[in-house]
Structures are given as structure tokens and as C-alpha cells.
Amino acid sequence: MRVALPSTLSAKVEKLDKERQSYRTQLDQALQEEEDPLASYDTFIKWTLSNYSGDLISRSGIVELLEEVTRTFKDDSTYKRDLRFLKIWCMYASAVEHPALVLEYALRQGIGLGYAQVYEDYALALEQ
User: What is the pTM (predicted TM-score) of this model?
Assistant: First the structure.
């Protein structure tokens, strides 16, 4: 159930939703036409994080976006050693209930093996 928003906040949300739809369209095109579609996802994620904050973060769809990009490229050998992709996996792991399971899966898939960040985040997740 969505709560009614004050009119200024409602206008802001409407504007953000339109911009988000524009990014979504760009993603669809990037997946079909771009040599590096992860770049479009990376831009969209950064835009989402910088524009949806506080009370609006729950409306951002960021967790779903992170899940989408990790699933889309998990088997793509081009991105397994890409630091951007690893950072997205770590962001996704930090947003879910069981981050250690997500990071364990990433490691088993060979994602980010050359970077200390994945091992550090995995160790922290196991400690929790």
C-alpha cells in the first residue's frame, strides 16, 4: 500500500519516475546495441543512488535493479574480472538479508577473484 505524498514530494517522485523510465529505455537499447551494456547499468545505478534518498529509497527499485544486473551478466566472462561488476555484486549483497550467500555465489562463479574487496566483504558478511 502506497502512502499519499505531499504535492511537492509527489511532483518530485513523478519527475524521478519519468527519468527512471528513460534510463530503463536506455538499458534496453544498450543490451541490444552497445559493446559495454554494463556501463549503462552502472550509470543507472549511480543515478538511482544519487536521486533517491531518505524516504524515497524504498521507491527507487535499487535492489531489483542490482539483482537484474547481477543475473544478466553473471555468466558473461567479459565482466567476471570487471571491478564495476564486482562493486555491483557487493552493493547487491549489502542490500539483501543474507549477504554471505550472495558473495559466496559470486566467488563460485569466478566474479571478482582478483580483487580484495570481494574477500573483505565476504569475511564481514560471515562475521555477521
Answer: 0.87
Distance CA 72, CA 113 (A): 19
Q: What are the two backbone dihedrals, phi and then psi, of residue 101, each rounded to the nearest 5 degrees?
A: -65, -40
Other residues' Cβ atoms within 10 Å of the Cβ of residue 118: 20
> Rounded to an integer, what distance in angstroms lies between the CA atom of residue 113 and that of residue 86?
9
- Name the grid cell of 43: 550509470
Q: What is the DSSP string of 46-59?
A: HHHHHH--GGGGGG
Q: What is the pLDDT of residues 23-58, one digit of tens each?
A: 999 999 999 999 999 999 999 999 999 998 877 888
d(CA 111, CA 89) in angstroms, rounded, equals: 9
